[in-house]
Amino acid sequence: MFDMLAALGRQGISYIASLGKATLVVIHALFVWPQPIKNMPLLLKQLYSVGVKSLLIITVSGLFIGMVLGLQGYTILVDFGSEQSVGQMVALSLVRELAPVVTALLFAGRAGSALTAEIGLMKATEQLASLEMIGVDPLRRVVAPRLWAGFISMPILSMIFAAVGIYGGALVSVDWLGVYSGSFWSVMQASVDFYDDVLNGIIKALVFGLVVTWIAVYQGLECIPTSEGIAQSTTRTVVYSSLMILALDFVLTALMFGDI
Amino acid sequence: MRSRSIEILVGLFLVCGLVAALALAMSVSGLTLGSKDTYKVYAHFENIGGLTEKAEVTVAGVQVGTVSKIELDPQMLVAKVEMKIFADVDYLSVDSSVQILTSGLLGGKYIGLSVGAEEEVLIEGSMIEDTQSALVLEELIGKFLFDKVSE
After folding, report:
1. What angle do CA A111, A114, A115 make, to 5 degrees?
2. Torsion sign, CA atoms B12, B17, B18, B19
3. Residues A143-186: tens digit of each pLDDT
C-alpha cells in the first residue's frame, strides 16, 4: 500500500522535476543570446536544415490537401447551388486549422525527430561534455540556434502551406470544375479577415514551432546515451509533440475563435 | 562556398515565407495596403437581413465596390449602409437604386445597384434614395401562411 503510494509520489516528483528542467533549458537557451553576429552562421545552418529542407514536403502536402479540400467542398456545395463558397471553405479551414496543425505534425516528424537524434548522438559520443570542458556552453552553442530556427521557420512553413493549399484549391475548383473565379476569390476575401484568421493562424504556428522544437531538444538532452535510448527518445519526440500539438490546438482554437 | 550556398537557400526560404504572407494578406483576406481610390455613398435600408461589411456592391453582377460600414441611424431607426465605390466607376447616376440580394441558395448577401437615367452622377457623400430591403425568409413564409388562412 505504502509502496504503491511512494512509487506514485516518486513518479510525480520526477515528472515535475523534468518539467522544471525543460523550462530552465528553454529559458536559458532563448534568452541568453549575447553574440548575435558571431552566432549568425550557426542559426543559418539550423534554418537550412530545419526550414529549407522541410520546404518540399510542406509544399507538396499543402498542394494536395488544398486540392482535396476543393474537390470535397465542391461536391458537397454544388448540391446546394452555392459552389462559389468553396473558396471560403478552403481558405478558412486552411488558414485557421489545417495549415498550422498539419505543418506542425509534419515538422515534428521531419525536423523534430532529426533534432532529437542529433543531440542524443552528441550526448552519447560525449561531444556535449567536451564542449563544456573547453568552456563553451552547449546550451548556447547547440541548443539555442536549433530552438530559434524552429521558432522562426514554423510560421513561415505554415504560411507557405496555406498559400500553396489555397492555390491548389483554386486550381481544382476554378480551373477543373468550373467555379466562376471572380466569386471564388471575392467570397473568400469577404469572409477571411486578416487579423482574426490569418494572424491567429500564424500565432498558432509560432506556438507549435516552439513546443515541437522544445520537446525535440529536451528529449535529445535527456536521452539515455545508448543507441536504444536514442531510438526511444526519437519516438517519444514524435509522439509527445503530436499529442501536444493536437491538445494545444483545441485550447488555442477555443481561446481565439470559440466563446468558451 | 558551402556556407554561401546555405545562406542563399535560407534567404530564398525567407523570401518564400514573405511571398506566402503577402499572398495570404492580399488575395486571400483582401487586405489592401494604401487602399485603392474609392468614394463613399450612403443608403438607408429598412432591413439589411444579414448583409455584412466587406460584402460586394455590384452593377450587372460585376463588382464596383464594397460595403464598408453598417450602422443604425439613430433618428430614422433604419440601417445606414456606407459603400465604397471604386474611383474609376464615376458614371453611376444619382437616381440609381440599390437592392440587397443573395447569391445562390446559401450564399452571402450582396448589394445590386441598378443604374438610373439621370445625367448627374453619384459623388463622395451622395445618398441613394431608392432602396429595396433584403428578403427575409420568415416574413415571406408568414405572409404566405396569412394569405392561405384568409382564403
Report:
1. 85
2. positive
3. 888 888 888 899 999 999 999 999 999 999 999 998 888 788 88
Q: Of the candidates A140, A108, A106, which has an alpha carbon nearest to the alpha carbon of residue A234?
A: A108
How far is residue A8's CA from residue A206's CA, in Å, rounded to a whole number? 35
Asked if ipTM goes beyond 0.90, one says no
CA atoms within 13 A on the CB side of B18: 6
Q: What is the pTM of this model?
A: 0.77
**Segment 14-73 of chain B within 8 Å of chain A by CB:** 14, 16-17, 19-21, 23-25, 27-31, 52, 54-56, 63, 66
> Does A47 contact B17 at a Cβ distance shorter than 8 Å?
no
Alpha carbon of B19: minimum distance to chain A alpha carbons (Å) = 8
CA distance B38 to chain A (A): 17
Residue A193 · residue A91 · CB < 8 Å: no
Nearest to B29 among A85, A155, A194 (CB): A194
The string of pLDDT tens digits covering residues A204-253 is 999 999 999 999 999 998 888 888 999 999 999 999 999 999 999 999 99
Give the C-alpha separation, A209 to A204, whole Å: 9
Size of interface A-B (CB pairs under 8 A): 109
